[in-house]
Amino acid sequence: SKVLALGDEHARASGVRFVSDMRDRIPDALELYAIAAKDQSIRVRVEAARALSFENELRAVDILLQIVDQPTDKWMDYVIEHSVGALESVWSEPYSNGQLT
Length: 101
Prior knowledge:
Blueprint: H1 9-21, H2 29-37, H3 42-52, H4 58-68, H5 74-86, H6 88-96
Helix pairs in contact: 1-2, 1-3, 2-3, 2-4, 3-4, 3-5
C-alpha cells in the first residue's frame, strides 16, 4: 500500500502490476485495486482494470465499474472491454437477477 501512495505514477502502476502478479499471496489485493481504481493517473487505473480481470469475485466487478466512471482513453477502453469479458462468469447471473445494475 505504501507504493500506491508514491508521487510517481509509474511506481504506482508497477505496484499494482506487482500486486496482480502476487495476488495469491496478498490477502487484501482487492482493496489495493480499489485504491488504484480511484488514482488520478490513467496508467495506474489501466493496471487496476487489468488486475481485476484475474479475480473471481463480484467485488472485482464493482471496482471495475468505478474505473468506468472516470475519463478513459483507447487503451483503457480496450482493457476495460476485455476485463468485463473475463469477468462475465462473475457478473452475468447477478446482472440477470437485477442484483447488479
